[in-house]
């Protein structure tokens, strides 16, 4: 040992190290514990009330039927439609930002600023905007379409940012390799860069799906709360999260509590499943690349 | 006959004067080696020959680079140019797809769809790059499964699939072990019969072994050029002498 090291301070240092280790370990443990606690709480209260009839059944306000099938269908519509709007625009914007725009140019700075600002706006503000603009001004009414357009704006920043990151992570050597063969820029992007960035893009889409499923305020302000399966995108529909919100407004009987927990259970399982799917797809795509 | 003729070329990366008044002729179907210490401009010059420097922001160029007498910095189709002047990079860069698809990539980009044509080009190119026997049974497996040396020969095969006239090689063996390097050098001896080759190398032994002509660069300037044996055995400039004798670099 070096003569300059005082054995006493060295010992103190070791104690400090141990303490710090315990602190970070403890923090991690608390995080996991909380997560497990929440999941367990919901599942233990809700799982026993989830049945085939509950999932596939119809719903009536008065209480003789409490199924959530219409909400599940509305949720799926909402996810698909908002992604149909946001994914192409978001992915193409990200392509523009990473592949075409000059680094640090005015245009890039403006778009970056816009996406970052968009991401920071509270979602209920989107709801208010959607209700004014899509529902009233454009006359789309309280409908799946109004909701999907509003949510598309909400998830656009997420898609742009994550896709951008995925594109930037694609090795420069692929671009060089493509161009050196005389390939056009668009061909190189389409056939080489995008496929390599696919795991990241898929992740961004699934993250957005989670976001769409999770939102409540901007959804009921634009898509309404009708508890029937919408027959077209111009009809109102109630997503699962909105349904849960609505249920929690009127918790008077044990039966209503049970319904709320059962709905929450379905939501949690759905989100866990989505996160799992992200992992599986990302690893699969990475392997095949 | 000169395939490429560079005259009075100056290149700036922003403020940095990276190439200073370079004039050099690249004769047809010979191997021309560009040597010199790191940062001397040899790779930069190589990348002006197929305009890969276009990808770098802030590059300014004056002077001319003529390919078969035509100025490539005039208003020409860069994609056409790059099909005729192929390139192999320092680090093997196979694409994340099968061996077959790697070779067929360039042709497919030009709309070639005929399976029979593609099959033939893939086989010919892999044979041309001395890789066919090693991979013929696994053309559909990912190119990443190949060893480093095989990957580099795959990249050479991918380049020659476009039937270029010139192949630019940017330190193609610097990431490879001696055995793989030896194979690439053997291959280059074959390739010179059909292609004009310009190679940037850090290894003076490699330049001696494989090149017909050598050009020595030093801080952005072309100090000396000529027949390889001439440059190595009877260098005219003291800096060339110092470098090829291993005194610095």
Describe this structure in words.
- The complex is a heterodimer of chains A (289) and B (249).
- By secondary structure, chain A is an all-alpha fold.
- Chain A is built from 11 helices and no strands.
- Chain A is globular and about 80 Å long.
- By secondary structure, chain B is α/β, with parallel strands linked by helices.
- Chain B has 10 helices and 10 strands.
- In chain B, 47% of the residues are buried.
- The longest helix of chain B has 14 residues.
- In chain B, helix 3 runs parallel beside helix 6, helix 4 crosses helix 6 and helix 6 runs parallel beside helix 7.
- At the A-B interface, helix 7 and helix 8 of A face helix 2, helix 3 and helix 6 of B.
Shape of chain A: globular
Chains forming the largest contact: A-B, 23 and 26 residues
Helix content of chain B: 25-40%
* Strand residues, percent of chain A: under 5%
> What pattern of helices and strands is seen along the backbone of chain A?
HHHHHHHHHHH
Rg from alpha-carbon coordinates of chain A? 24 Å
Figure out the total of helices of chain A: 11
Please state the second-level CATH architecture of the largest domain in chain A: Orthogonal Bundle
CATH architectural arrangement of chain B:
3-Layer(aba) Sandwich
Subcellular location (chain B): Cell inner membrane
Protein name (chain B): Phosphate ABC transporter ATP-binding protein PstB
Domain ABC transporter (chain B): 4-244
Keywords (chain B): ATP-binding, Cell membrane, Membrane, Nucleotide-binding, Phosphate transport, Translocase, Transport
Brief synopsis:
The complex is a heterodimer of chains A (289) and B (249). Chain A is 78% helix and 0% strand. By secondary structure, chain A is mainly α.
List the helices and strands and how they pair.
The complex is a heterodimer of chains A (289) and B (249).
Chain A: H1 7-46, H2 52-56, H3 69-100, H4 106-120, H5 123-137, H6 144-169, H7 172-180, H8 185-214, H9 217-223, H10 240-249, H11 254-288
Chain B: E1 2-13, E2 16-27, E3 31-35, H1 42-48, E4 59-67, E5 70-71, H2 78-84, E6 85-88, H3 99-109, H4 115-128, H5 132-135, H6 148-160, E7 166-170, H7 178-191, E8 196-200, H8 204-210, E9 213-218, E10 221-227, H9 228-233, H10 238-244
Parallel strand pairs in B: 3-8, 3-9, 6-7, 7-8
Antiparallel strand pairs in B: 1-2, 1-4, 4-5, 9-10
Helix pairs in contact in B: 3-4, 3-6, 4-6, 6-7
């Amino acid at each position: 040992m070096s003569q300059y090291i005082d054995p006493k301070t060295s010992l103190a240092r070791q104690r400090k190290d141990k303490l710090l280790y315990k602190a970070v370990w403890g923090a991690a443990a608390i995080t996991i514990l909380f997560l497990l606690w929440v999941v367990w709480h919901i599942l233990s209260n809700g799982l026993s009330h989830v049945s085939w009839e509950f999932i596939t059944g119809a719903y009536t306000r008065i209480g003789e039927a409490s199924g959530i099938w219409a909400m599940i269908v509305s949720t799926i519509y909402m996810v698909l439609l908002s992604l149909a709007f946001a994914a192409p625009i978001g992915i193409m914007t990200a392509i523009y930002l990473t592949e075409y725009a000059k680094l640090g140019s005015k245009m890039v700075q403006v778009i970056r600023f816009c996406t970052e600002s968009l991401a920071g706006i509270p979602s209920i503000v989107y709801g208010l905007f959607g209700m004014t603009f899509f529902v009233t001004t454009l006359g789309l009414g309280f409908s799946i379409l109004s909701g999907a357009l509003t949510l598309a704006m909400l998830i656009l920043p997420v898609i742009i940012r994550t896709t951008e990151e995925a594109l930037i992570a694609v090795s420069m050597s692929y671009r060089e390799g493509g161009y050196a063969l005389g390939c056009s820029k668009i061909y190189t992007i389409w056939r080489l860069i995008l496929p390599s960035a696919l795991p990241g893009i898929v992740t961004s889409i699934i993250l957005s799906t989670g976001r769409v499923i999770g939102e409540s305020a901007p959804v009921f302000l634009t898509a309404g709360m009708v508890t029937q399966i919408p027959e077209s995108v111009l009809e109102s529909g109630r997503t699962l999260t909105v349904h849960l919100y609505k249920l929690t407004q009127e918790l008077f009987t044990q039966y209503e509590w049970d319904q709320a927990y059962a709905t929450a259970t379905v939501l949690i399982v759905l989100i866990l499943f989505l996160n799992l799917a992200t992992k599986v797809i990302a690893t699969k795509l990475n392997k095949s690349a | 006959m000169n395939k490429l003729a560079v005259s009075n070329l100056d290149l700036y990366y922003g403020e940095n004067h990276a190439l200073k008044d370079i004039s050099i002729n690249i004769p047809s179907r010979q191997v021309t080696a560009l040597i010199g210490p790191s940062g001397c401009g040899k790779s930069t010059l190589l990348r002006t020959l197929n305009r890969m420097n276009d990808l770098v922001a802030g590059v300014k160029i004056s002077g001319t680079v003529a390919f078969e007498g035509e100025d490539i910095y005039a208003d020409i189709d860069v994609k056409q140019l790059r099909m005729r002047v192929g390139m192999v990079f320092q680090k093997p860069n196979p694409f994340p797809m099968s061996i077959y698809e790697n070779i067929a990539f360039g042709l497919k980009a030009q709309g070639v769809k005929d399976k029979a044509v593609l099959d033939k080009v893939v086989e010919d190119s892999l044979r041309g790059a001395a890789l066919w026997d090693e991979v013929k049974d696994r053309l559909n497996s990912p190119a990443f499964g190949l060893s480093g040396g095989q990957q580099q020969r795959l990249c050479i095969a991918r380049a020659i699939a476009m039937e270029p006239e010139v192949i630019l090689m940017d330190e193609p063996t610097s990431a490879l072990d001696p055995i793989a390097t030896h194979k690439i050098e053997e291959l280059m001896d074959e390739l010179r019969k059909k292609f004009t080759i310009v190679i940037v190398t850090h290894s003076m032994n490699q330049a001696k072994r494989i090149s017909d002509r050598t050009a020595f660069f030093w801080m952005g300037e072309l100090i000396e050029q000529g027949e390889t044996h001439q440059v190595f055995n009877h260098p005219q400039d003291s800096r060339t002498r110092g470098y090829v004798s291993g005194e610095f670099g």
